[in-house]
Amino acid sequence: MNHDEDNSEKLLGNCVLNTIRNNFRTTPTIIINEKKTIKEEFDKYFVTSDYPRIVSEDNFNTSCIYMQEGYILSITYIDDCETLSSLKDQTIEGPIKYLVIILNYSEARCIKTLQIVGHITSMYDVTYIVKIKNDYSILTYMPEINVTTCTLQYDSPPTILSTCGSNKRFNAFPSKKIQNYMGCPFKVGMASLFPFSTFTNKSELYIYKPLEEDEVHGSDVEILKIMADTFNFTLDMHFIFSAEKNPVVAVHYIDFLLNGSLDLCAGGLYRIYGDLVDYSGVYGRQAIIWMYTAKRDTRSWQGLVGKVNGLYLFVIFYFVYTIIWQLFCMFDKQSVSMGRMLIHAWGALIGTSSLVEGKTLKQKILNLMYLVMCIHLTAYVNIQMFSFLTIASPPTIYKTNTDILQSGLRPYLMMRMKFFMSDKSYEAFANTSADCESFSDCEEKALKLNGVTVVIDGQFVALQAETAVNDEAITLSTHENLLTVYHEMLLRKDVPIIKSFQKMMVRLRESGISDRLYDEAVGILTKSKSENAAKNMMGHSYRCITGCSITLAQSAGAFYVWMIGCGLSFCIFVIEGLGKRERN
């Protein structure tokens, strides 16, 4: 070996080692490919280094290598570009970084070969070290969007990152994610599912109808607007049909992704299509819950009699008092009218008249004890009336799904969609359901007929706020979810921006922006009203928030008693008058 070749090998060895040191935070495992073609002078640099090495005889075939942690660097040493053409038939592993050393590089001979494999290497961490004259250059292919065709272009020249003789630090494996879509249209299919996407004139829409931005609203649309601003693409939205409020497989719009008519499908969709498409990552979730009507007894004077328990004890004391008084009078040989005695004793009991005056000490003591009992009766009735007319008892609360199944309430479910859970207790309960035509119809029947139905939590919040009466909720839900559905957007597998899109979606979710957009789509005021209505339903059940006033309507029973008493008195008056007239 002459002196120039020795310096060349030394320069290449130092270049590779410096590249490793400057671009890996931890010690990588090095896979040496084509061991037979590596010269001994070059190999000694790796023998003296501390990097762990694995020898492989196959070009780029690292699929058998698996590591739990750390980085893997695959170094392939080839003599000319013809060997590089085999790369298009190899599987490139995403987590592995590839360093391809081309010893005999000629731009005239290699440029076409590099362009052939450029569309593969432009999406992965593949970097080339090529020998040009007496120096080595480090270059790679970066993905670019063709402004005219809005597709990835592969005929652009490679990007030179650095030269081996330079002392400047550089990134040998720059990010290959597309960050600029060059204003090209991004074709999006929008399904309908509140609050992810809603349409102003849904009845007029048809499959693949183009949509203007003001025709569709919801959290998914706002997320896509953020993506459009971030990656500089133009939203080109089209309507697609999907069954609302039910995670069922709908394959018709998947064809739009597979044939390239759409780049993405959104609108509260799910990860249910396997490997046919790629996914944005979870950005939202919805709970499927039981909804039921929160009904409690109406507060009125008619129900007061049933509320005031134990009145018969005071009636017993009333009769005991009159009997004892009568015995005292008989013992003292006093004449007393039994009717007059009963009337005065009853009047004192309800606080409307005085007792018959006691003439002896035992009668006065008996009157005193009876008056104490009358005071207790008045306090007892007043307290019962006050609590009955101001403090409503709480409605029946069903906290778990088991509570619903054992409640005796009738479920209202759509016949073709009610068996979405493989649970025997749920299926037995669903078999007792009454049929309804749509989700809205199920909600209406559950409200009117005091039943239960299945809703998604986003729809339930709006319904609870809409149906609240006097700021109190009349619809409640279980605390336990029947099912939790995770929403993801569907992406065509060959969309150039897919990796950047997925990374951005993770950032939106972790920062809470996607949840915030969801709440805004539901309606912050609607959600607040729903929460307050639920709190008021429970709060008004136990304490007096508005001063515990008793209205005139609630006290109507006293007026009815007064009118009945006046009517009876008038009848007696007429009867007595007629009796005197006959005697005269």
Largest sheet: 7 strands, mixed
Radius of gyration: 43 Å
The count of helical stretches stands at 17
Distance N to C terminus: 159 Å
The count of strands amounts to: 23
Percent of residues in helices comes to 25-40%
CATH class of the domain at 3-163: Alpha Beta
**Strand coverage percent:** 15-25%
Give the class from helix and strand content and strand pairing: alpha/beta
CATH fold name of the domain at 3-163: Rossmann fold
Average pLDDT figure: 77
Low-pLDDT segments = 62-69
What would you say the CATH architecture of the domain at 3-163 is?
3-Layer(aba) Sandwich
Give the strand order of the largest sheet, numbering strands 1, 2, ... along the chain.
2-1-3-4-5-6-9
Shape: elongated
Keywords: Cell membrane, Glycoprotein, Membrane, Receptor, Transmembrane, Transmembrane helix
InterPro entries: Insect_Ionotropic_Sensory_Rcpt
Subcellular location: Cell membrane
Main location: membrane
Brief characterization of the structure:
With 584 residues, this protein is α/β, with parallel strands linked by helices. The chain has helices at residues 3-23, 40-48, 107-121, 219-231, 254-258, 304-307, 311-331, 338-349, 361-390, 401-405, 424-430, 439-448, 457-466, 498-510, 513-522, 524-539, 556-583, and strands at residues 29-33, 53-56, 72-78, 97-102, 126-132, 135-140, 144-145, 152-153, 159-163, 185-190, 198-199, 210-211, 216-217, 234-239, 264-266, 278-279, 284-293, 412-413, 434-435, 452-456, 475-477, 483-487, 490-491. Helix 4 crosses helix 15, helix 7 runs antiparallel to helix 8 (338-349) and helix 7 (311-331) runs antiparallel to helix 9.
